[in-house]
Amino acid sequence: MNKPAGSSPSALRRRLKTAAKVVALGALLIVGTLIGVRLYDIQQGPPLASWHTYVPEELNAEQLDRSSWQDYIAHEDALLALVRQNVGDKLEPQDKVDSNRYFAGAKVYPEHFAHDWNRSFVLVPPGEPAGVVVLLHGLTDSPYSLRHIAAHYQSAGYVAVAIRMPGHGTVPGALTDAHWEDWAAATRLAVREARRRVPAPRPLHMVGFSNGGALTLMYALDALDDPKLAKPDRLVLISPMVGITGFARFAGLAGLPSILPAFAKAAWLSIVPEFNPFKYNSFPVNAARQSFELTQTLQERIVAQQRSGGLERMPPIISFHSVLDFTVSTRALINALYARLPANGSELVLFDLNRATKLGPLFRQGAAWSLAGTLPGDKRNYRLSIVTNASPTSSQMVERVIEAGSLGAVERAIGIDYPREVYSLSHVALPFPTNDALYGMHPDNIEEFGISLGAMSMRGEVGAFVIGMDTLTRLTSNPFYSFLVKRIDGVMPR
User: Which among 164, 320, 365, 371 counts the fewest CB atoms within 10 Å?
Assistant: First the structure.
């Protein structure tokens, strides 16, 4: 029987090669189009300033592992002096404005304040310490973000050690050369200092916010197998970055055009004025890439420790997380971490959105997050607490608790109402009380830092600001902060 024309193996190979070439060409066209759009978008944005191009030289992981706390503070002092010399003292005339944190004449200039919270700090209680806590801030952030939690621990008799992560607290350009391994080494340094000040057996707590939550978990996992690392007794995670959006996987591609000098701005995902004295507004591609690599490594370590039985020795964890979180993955927190934990006394506290608002028709599809659709329906090894409305029409909040190993919920009032004007918490809001001078909705000292970002209520025409309105409307303080610190008290031996 004659074979149909074109059905021979050689003809089939030719067709497969042709199809492969078509697919490859299509992929190249898509990548080329995306890069073209990216380059066009870059050229429309503002130019890079000195705080984007100057990169201070931080200590690397090897140097940090050999350093003492005093060494790190001395290097930090030198870095900030270099920032003044290479950025602040060389500003262009158009950059000498009252909203530029690098202008010595600005109200938001950090060195004008009674305390520059960009720096690492230690808080010591009166008398003999009951324990010690290490606090790790988030990406683009500074030690300011955990100062209230640190002060609360101090009031409970703990020494609080809060370290500035390498690449932070100076200029956003520093994050273009940052590496997560250096952040992990800085974590080890902070724990060494904590244990130097307060030796075992007095308790060691670690508090991690956002990216600092990932670093906290990474340290605790490393300490399971490394006898040289002091083992924490309790982990407190706030908006922990166990997983992030898939975009970060391709952030390196977004920065490819920056290898050409004409397209140096491609190394940045956003370039905006630096008006916040304690947090970068501009965001480089490398920062996204480092967070992605950190969370990927973290998830791999969690799986490996579960398989080897190491998680049985993991300290208890309590996590606080907003159901709506634009920055980190809620599903990753539940599935990649909590679903793998043994029954060791861990707890997950979720802050629901405000179910009593009348904004339901305006929410994007899926924004009204379904607890039943995200949480596993089986019994859990951890305690689950959901802070939510008493009813769909009530602003009074209750805590619904499902104990480990149970499916039944117990409900109790917490004595706090959801503010009418707030439809949810946010990733950045949780560690700040509403009276925080910089981020609070009701700041107790509105002039302390030259600007009160949380108290702004903007009304007017669109297109007037150099930053997106979502930056100014995002909730920056936590109306349930008093509830949060009471829950921390509940896991704090005294």
Answer: 365
3-class secondary structure per residue, 49-99: CHHHHCCCCCCCHHHHHHCCHHHHHHHHHHHHHHHHHHCHHHCCHHHCCCC
416 Ramachandran zone, left/alpha/beta (phi>0; psi -120 to 50): beta
pTM of the model: 0.88
Chain centroid, CA 488 distance in Å? 19
Query: C-alpha angle with apex 459: 456 to 461, nearest 5 degrees?
Result: 130
- Sheet containing strand 347-351, edge to edge, reads 121-123, 158-163, 131-136, 204-209, 234-238, 317-322, 347-351, 383-389, 396-402, 409-417
The DSSP secondary-structure symbol of 328 reads B
Dihedrals φ, ψ of 356, to 5°? -90, -5
Q: How far is CA 180 from CA 147, 184, 218, 384, in A?
A: 23, 6, 11, 30
Looking at the DSSP assignment, which residues form a beta bridge with residue 378? none
Q: Could you list the mean pLDDT of each consecutive 10-residue stretch along the chain, which spans 494 residues? A: 59 70 63 49 73 97 98 98 97 95 96 95 97 98 98 98 98 97 98 98 98 98 97 98 69 48 69 94 93 96 97 98 88 93 96 84 62 65 94 93 92 95 92 96 87 77 66 88 96 80
Question: Apex CA 92: angle with CA 87 and CA 93, to 5°?
Answer: 135
Q: Could you say which of 3.40.190.10, 2.40.50.140, 3.40.50.300, 3.40.50.1820 is the CATH number of the domain covering 26-314?
A: 3.40.50.1820
CA angle (494, 479, 163) in 5-degree steps: 55
Nearest CA-CA partner of 219 in 197, 199, 191: 191
